[in-house]
Each structure stands twice: as structure tokens, then as C-alpha cells.
Amino acid sequence: MAHATPEGLTQEQGALCILATTHLADLQKRGVTADFLTAYAAKLKTMQDAFAAHTGMTSDKEQLTVSEQVAKDQLLADVRRMQHGARRTFPKGSPQLKEFHVGEDYNRSTGLLGKWAGEIATAWDKYKMNLIANGNLIQDDFDSMVANAAVLKNTDAAQENAKHVDSPGATVAALSAMAAVEKAADFIYGAAEAAYAKDPAMLGEFEKLKPLRYAVPPRPKAAPQPPQPSAGTKK
After folding, report:
1. Three-state SS string across 41-66, please?
2. Which ranges of 90-166 does DSSP label H, i.e. alpha helix?
3. CATH number at residue 141
4. Which of 105, 154, 166, 214 is the most exposed place for a label (fewest CB within 10 A)?
5. Phi, psi of 167 (to 5 degrees)
6. Cβ of 125: how many Cβ atoms within 10 Å?
7. Is 129 within a domain?
8. 145 near 121, Cβ under 8 Å?
């Protein structure tokens, strides 16, 4: 089953308003007035703005996902540096290494990485002098870990908000605006059907515009690929 698209509804509105304006004398007694057409155009603008916002939020969410991965990579590098310093400082099997989560598996979880960073920060406060003296660590290593942990926390919170609040809300607004545009168009078709019930040729002029709302936006063209050498071609 075909579904209306924002691009299709835009095409339909342009063509339908021109046709309705031409025959306004017949349609206005059935509610399709100049003011109605103006309101129809305003509904279309609202829909276009809503879909632009939805597209922007989707793009923002995708960018936040990339930003979170970058923040995770940076924090993981800091955590590993602190763990290596702990290995150089404390003997293998010592309980202090557990405080640095040395030897534990990292499952790529944002929450787990943040937990490790927080507990390693506590361990740093306890063993700071020893880690500096024997683990080749400096205060900047600790400060970098704390700063990147804060960045990851903020990025993760922003992404969760975009996932659970912004994008769904933008989707609802866009679909609601789209439904309002469809309803306005259908009202015009209903008025034309009543006005031209005995004039099938004129009614057909309106009916043939309905498929416009199902127009599919053109896909971006793929970049041309360089020609591939044939099997017997020498390089």
C-alpha cells in the first residue's frame, strides 16, 4: 500500500491549489474558500518545518553516537594508561590491582567504563605517590581521565535524551503535521466530488492529482566507480 510522502504532499498542494483557485466560484459554497487555501498552504509550511526539524534531530542523534564512541575511545586510553601504571607499581596478584580493574574484561559498555574511571580515581587518591614514583604516571594522566570521563558522561546523557525524547517527539510532530495537510487536500477533493458529481470530466481533473501525494523522493546518485581492469589487463 502506497503512503503519502512530504515531497508528494508538497507537489499535490501546489497543483491542487492552482486548480481549486481556478474553480473557486464553484467550490467556495462548499467551504473551499480563498482563506481555506491560505490555511492549507500554512499547514504545508508547518509540515515542511516539522520534517526539517525531524531530519535535523536524526542527524544530531547520529553525530552524538559518533561523539560518544570517540569519547569512549579517549577515556579507555586513559584507563589503560592508569592500569599499566598500576601493574608497574604493584606485584602481580596484589589486591591493589583489583582497585584498578586490572585483568577484567571490558565489554564496550559506556556504564562500565564510567564505573571503572570513577573507582580508579579513588584508587589514585590512595596510591598517588607510589604510582608517580614507580608507575611512570603523572598528575596529567589522572586529570585527563577525569576530564574524559566527564565528557563521556555528558555525551551519553545527550544521546539518551535525543533517543528517548527529541527524536520521537519530532517524529510525532512531523506525522501530525503531515496528517493535517492530507486532511485539507481530502476536503478539497470532497468539495469537488460534490460540486462536479454530474461533470465527470471536471471531477477527473481533481482526481488525477491524488497520486501526486505518493511521490517518492529521488535517491542521491551514487558516485561513479573507476573502471576495473579486465582479467587480462597488465598493470
Report:
1. HHHHHHHHHHHHHHHHHHHHHHHHHH
2. 95-99, 110-134, 139-161
3. 1.20.1260
4. 105
5. -65, -50
6. 9
7. yes
8. yes
Give the range of the structural domain holding residue 192, as residue numbers without chain letter: 8-210
Give the number of domains in the chain. 1
Among residues 26, 144, 21, the alpha carbon closest in space to that of 74 is found at 144
Residue with grid cell 520521537, as numbered in its chain: 168
Predicted confidence (pLDDT) per residue in 103-152, tens digit: 998 887 888 889 999 999 999 999 999 999 999 999 999 999 998 888 88
Tens-place pLDDT, residues 186-219 = 999 999 999 999 999 999 999 999 999 998 766 5
By three-state DSSP, how is residue 89 classified?
A: helix
Instruction: Specify the pTM.
Output: 0.48
Who's near 162: CB < 8 A, 6+ residues apart?
57, 60, 61, 64
**Residue 221 counted as domain residue:** no
Residue at 3: amino acid letter: H
Joined together, the cell numbers standing for residue 128 give 598517588
pLDDT in tens, 59-99: 445 554 555 677 788 888 999 999 999 999 999 999 999 99
Checking phi first, is residue 101 left (phi over 0); if not, alpha (psi -120 to 50) or beta? left
Q: What phi, psi does 100 have (nearest 5°)? A: -100, 5
- Cell numbers that stand for 7 in this block: 515531497
Is the C-alpha dihedral spanning 67, 69, 71, 73 positive or negative? negative
